[in-house]
Amino acid sequence: MSVALVRVCLLRPGARIPFRASAHASGFDLYACLGDETVEVGQLPVVVGTGVALEIPPGLDAQVRPRSGLARQGVLSTFGTIDADYRGELMVTLYTVAPGIGHTVRDGDRIAQLVISRLADVTFEEVGELVATARGSGGHGSTGR
Q: Which residue, 66, 78, 123, 127, is most buried by CB atoms nearer than 10 A?
């Protein structure tokens, strides 16, 4: 499989190219680019800039995902998709999951992960009914605890 090239534009001093922290990590760390500012994260969503813009090649899917280390502290980023034709700054929306949990984001903090995968080439076909399965239309929690 060929290696895809994602072009990166650093928009401000202190911005950092997304970085894979270990050889087999599926995500690339995204860093806050705030200069001397800080951002206080609580239960209401706040948007944190990364100072990075990407040129995602068509055929790739780029997603912003939470970091497990922050999630363990009750701090999450929302999932987000970066479309191949978007050229603006990557922004990460952060919030905490419960009252009383606060988090301060400083310049250079790792705030989310960027995961890139290949898109499936699909076509949708309208049909009158679907092939039956053992699960059928059982929804959330229908396969057990």
A: 66
